[in-house]
Design a protein that fits this description.
The relative contact order is 0.19. The longest helix has 11 residues, at 44-54. The strands form 2 sheets. The chain has a 6-stranded mixed β-sheet with strand order 3-2-1-4-8-5, with helices on both faces. Strands 6-7 form a two-stranded antiparallel sheet. It starts with a strand and ends with a strand. By secondary structure, it is of the alpha/beta class. It has helices at 16-24, 44-54, 69-79, 98-108, 145-151; strands spanning 3-9, 31-37, 58-62, 84-87, 114-116, 119-125, 128-134, 162-164. The chain is globular.
């Protein structure tokens, strides 16, 4: 298994279709998707179950009480089998080519510990929306945690902006 994608899920029934479809549309078999359902009061678990029946790459873990996203990510890590980990939030989606591009980078640079990737922030307010592009940093010839911390100044608040070995 090359890449484990971990998705914490809480009250995400309105977003799950877009999120899961954007990931599972790839025919790539070297991924697993671990959705950790965090005791949602909505139909998130039912939606996950439907996707899980249709795609064997999706594994669903359930919490018996609401434990928040960090707990869910750690729970997903415990069952992950991938060489690399990517955290994606349930209200996010990826572009059609993103997964194949990331897997291509992982295959080309197998000794890399962290891939820091750019992303777009999309905000919608009634009929208006705007998009902000956040580029990934350029790591100055360093593939280690030390280089990552130098570029990010020791802090990154967006777990989805990195793929970790």
């Amino acid at each position: 298994m090359l890449l484990s994608i971990i998705i914490p899920v809480f009250k995400a029934e309105d977003y799950l279709d877009k999120c899961l479809t954007s990931i599972l549309c790839s025919a790539e078999e070297s991924i697993e998707v671990i959705a950790v359902e965090d005791f949602s009061p909505d139909s998130s678990l039912a939606k996950l179950s439907d996707y899980g029946k249709a795609d064997k790459r999706l594994k669903i873990l359930n919490n018996t009480e609401n434990r928040l996203a960090g707990f869910c990510r750690n729970k997903g890590l415990q069952s992950a089998k991938g060489d690399y980990i990517w955290f994606i939030d349930a209200d996010d989606w990826i572009e059609a080519s993103a997964l194949n591009r990331i897997l291509g980078l992982i295959r080309a640079f197998q000794d890399t510990d962290i891939f820091s990737i750019g992303y777009f922030e999309y905000y919608s307010f009634e009929e208006d929306f705007f998009i902000t592009r956040i580029p990934g940093p350029i790591t100055p010839g360093c593939d280690s945690l030390e280089g990552f911390l130098q570029v990010r100044e020791g802090y990154s608040s967006m777990p989805f902006s990195c793929v970790f070995r």
